Amino acid sequence: MSGARLAVLGVGAVGRSVIELAEEYGHTVTAVADSSSAVVDAGGVDTPAVLDRKRETGTVGESDPDAALAADYDVLVEATPTTLGDAEPGFSHVVSALDRDKHVVLANKGPVAERYSELRAAEAASEGRIRFEATVGGAIPICSTIEDFGATHITAARGVLNGTANFILSRMAAEGLDYEHVLAEAQDLGVAEADPTFDVEGIDAALKFVILSNVLADGNQEFTLADATVEGITDIPGTALELAAEDGRTIRLIGESTPEGVSVAPRLVPDDGPLSVTGTLNIVQLETTHAGRLNISGRGAGGPETATAVLSDVSRLAE
Which CATH number belongs to the domain containing residue 53 in this structure? Predict the structure, then answer.
């Protein structure tokens, strides 16, 4: 198939951007669903009208959301909010598509982080395939780089994979401000959510490194959030960053995936080193068996940025 027909579940920042950019990538959106409604058109939905309706009324159409899952499409884009534990309803959405031998591209981290072996088992029983580049690092091609190298040739992954926490630590260091002050600033700028727990407690970063551990384990072991050691940034005083600066270092929320497991915690890093990215930038270091250390950095969040990872996955499947 030269261009794919897409069913998009979820109309948050990522889903909305996928809908807006799909045509530019040569794909057609044939179904869209939010949590309470859907619109389906086998010839291609009127995407501007759908997004206008969503902004004006809070719904995308007149149909039940399940109509999108039952629609005629080649690739299901699962962009509903990440949930923990049973990873529902995202996991069931994926299985439903695979049962119909459809491909799936995930922006939703839950199924990949919490039910990875079940996801792969459902894929093995299907003619469809799953891809999930957008679940780790937004626009940064981390999963595809691991795929290209081969998971057995990468021994560890580490880095900064949460832009909110990184913005806060960067501002605390640059301006000598305390955590609460910078958090309020981040919320005003839209960099932090009204409830920033997922980001500042390290949970979001941990989910991403759990996914990387699952990819690196290559089916030999499964990791979930329960296997990760996680510490956030809420208790870091501004004085700690000042002391670190005196020694030519700074503090970043660093995650690490190794064969032994997953950890996320504030770490001291050299102020002029690759891990001291500033603002909302992300970076991942991959330790390879034959090519040394690879540093991959870029925008780790944002609607259009993450949508590019989704649509790149769609294009790979279309090939």
Answer: 3.40.50.720
